[in-house]
């Protein structure tokens, strides 16, 4: 007898934040359409929102587990990361055991695919005797940075005493075509709280273990985007961009309801005219900066579609626009609480994306040939900004540093420059071609994904 032909069953666990759930769920949908049974594990906090985001029947199955936190604790910086790292493994292990030790009515779980930022799940796969796959929803460059932490400590670029504080302020590039990053913008150092900084550094170091021992490390990026990172971390398999458009489907897993009329509004705007503005699911601007952005957009005199999440201004409750702004820009712009961003960025009316440079936003922009104005806030967003501005040269950065308030005339001037720069636009369109090629039959990401699926079926 040859190998058993039982249906493969994988369990997938995302970090319960928007930018992590969307790409892993996208992968789940792809795998499910290839006949793989997928069970997607959410924490209770996000479960209903994820399930409600799906239109109609889903091939992906869902289960939900508690994260062990009291509601108020979720707002304490670092608590969610800690809980996910320490509590989730036990819950996931119990789920796998329940299925695999149970009667034969379930197909046994043969593989655990987990968000790379929860490296503690690698041990669960090992303890339950199943395969282990780490999924990276960020740039491979982020993982390369994590793998280099011991070297950064040895070389005296960061210190070990105060949680990786930079000791050297020279910009660092680990290899040609890698982002050029100032050590003050290393992921852990972009948060203000030292305890959180230490937690991020420790978690990144611990995750290196799973990276070096997982059966596969798959990344939602393309090798053509990151050749340097691909050389420095050959254990990474590039399968991105994982976008719903590759499946001719609508993106799933969104925590918020998107505005239904944005696309129709875009239809009414001239080609390549609209400034799309979004800071993703989590980043916030202070009230003063928010007002400057509003005035800068108004001053461009260009149509704009601006995502202002209802929670965009926690200090003052609801977002506060400058006096008279909403009235004056009624026919110029559209402000929405959440957009169908993947669709918006593929619309021909969009000329420029003012973005916080989250990795998903970056991939979505690059895949659609939309030049960017970069406004990173924290985490890996500075790494992504460097890719966009220094390496791929498909965008401009707003300022050299964070923490300052950008004046409205500078915002307007930079938007004008992005929209008017034909070379930027040309490079963005070239990169779109490269990305499309990689994701289509014969392309690297396409082939890698195919190989991965074959392995899952074995
Ligand atoms: N997104 C969306 N509508 C919005 C804002 C964001 O659909 O109005 C999606 C966006 O397409 C992306 C994700 O939310 O897939 C945000 O991920 P990203 O990595 O860009 O940023 P994060 O939210 O993790 O900071």
What does this protein look like?
By secondary structure, this protein is of the alpha/beta class. It is 41% helix and 13% strand. A 7-stranded parallel sheet has the order 3-2-1-4-5-6-7, with helices on both faces. The chain has a 6-stranded parallel sheet with strand order 10-9-8-11-12-13, with helices on both faces. β11 (350-355), α14 and β12 form a beta-alpha-beta unit. The longest helix has 20 residues, at 194-213. The mean pLDDT is 93. The site of uridine-5'-diphosphate has 20 residues, from α1, α13 and α14.
Alpha carbon gap, first and last residue: 14 Å
Specify the number of helices: 18
> Architecture of the largest domain, CATH level 2?
3-Layer(aba) Sandwich
Overall radius of gyration: 22 Å
- Range of helix content: 40-55%
In the sheet with the most strands, the strands line up as 3-2-1-4-5-6-7
> What can be said about the biggest beta sheet?
7 strands, parallel
Q: What is the CATH superfamily of the largest domain?
A: Glycogen Phosphorylase B
CATH fold call of the largest domain: Rossmann fold
Which regions have little confidence, pLDDT < 50, spanning 5+ residues? none
Output the CATH class name of the largest domain. Answer: Alpha Beta
Protein structure class: alpha/beta
Name the shape in a single word. Answer: globular
Percent of residues in β-strands: 5-15%
Question: What are the distinct ligands in this entry?
Answer: uridine-5'-diphosphate
């Amino acid at each position: 007898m040859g190998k058993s032909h039982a249906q493969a069953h994988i369990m997938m666990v995302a970090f319960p934040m928007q930018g992590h759930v969307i790409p892993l769920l996208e992968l789940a949908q792809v795998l499910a359409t290839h006949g793989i049974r997928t069970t997607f594990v959410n924490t209770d906090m996000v479960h209903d929102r994820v399930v409600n985001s799906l239109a109609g029947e889903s091939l992906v199955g869902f289960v939900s587990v508690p994260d062990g936190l009291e509601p108020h604790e979720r707002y304490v910086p670092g608590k969610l990361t800690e809980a996910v790292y320490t509590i989730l493994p036990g819950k996931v292990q119990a789920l796998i055991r329940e299925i695999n030790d149970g009667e034969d009515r379930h197909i046994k779980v043969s593989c655990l695919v987990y968000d790379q930022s929860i490296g503690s799940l690698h041990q669960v796969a090992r303890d339950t005797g199943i395969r282990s796959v780490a999924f990276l929803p960020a740039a491979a460059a982020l993982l390369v940075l994590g793998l280099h932490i011991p070297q950064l400590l040895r070389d005296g670029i960061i210190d070990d005493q105060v949680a990786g504080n930079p000791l050297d302020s020279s910009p660092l590039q680990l290899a040609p075509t890698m982002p050029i990053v100032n050590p003050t913008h290393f992921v852990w150092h972009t948060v203000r709280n030292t305890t959180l900084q230490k937690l991020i550094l420790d978690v990144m170091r611990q995750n290196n273990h799973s990276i070096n021992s997982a059966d596969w490390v798959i990344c939602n990026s393309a090798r053509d985007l990151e050749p340097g990172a691909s050389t420095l971390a050959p254990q990474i398999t590039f399968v991105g961009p994982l976008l719903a458009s590759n499946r001719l489907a609508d993106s799933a897993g969104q925590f918020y309801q998107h505005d239904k009329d944005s696309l129709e509004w875009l239809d009414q705007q001239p080609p390549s005219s609209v400034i799309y503005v979004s800071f993703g699911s989590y980043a916030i601007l202070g009230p003063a900066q928010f007002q400057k952005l509003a005035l800068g957009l108004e001053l461009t005199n260009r149509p704009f579609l601006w995502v202002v999440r209802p929670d965009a201004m926690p200090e003052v409750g609801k977002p506060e626009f400058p006096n008279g702004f909403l009235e004056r820009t009624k026919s110029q712009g559209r402000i929405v609480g959440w957009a169908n961003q993947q669709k918006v960025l593929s619309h021909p009316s969009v000329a420029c994306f003012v973005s916080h440079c989250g990795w998903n936003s970056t991939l979505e922009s690059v895949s659609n040939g939309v030049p960017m104005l970069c406004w990173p806030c924290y985490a890996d967003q500075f790494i992504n900004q460097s890719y966009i501005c220094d390496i791929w040269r498909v965008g401009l950065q707003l300022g050299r540093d964070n923490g300052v308030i950008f004046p409205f005339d500078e915002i307007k001037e930079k938007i004008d420059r992005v929209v008017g720069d034909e070379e930027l636009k040309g490079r963005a369109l070239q990169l779109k071609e490269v990305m499309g090629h990689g994701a289509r039959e014969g392309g690297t990401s396409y082939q890698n994904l195919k190989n991965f699926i074959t392995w899952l079926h074995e």
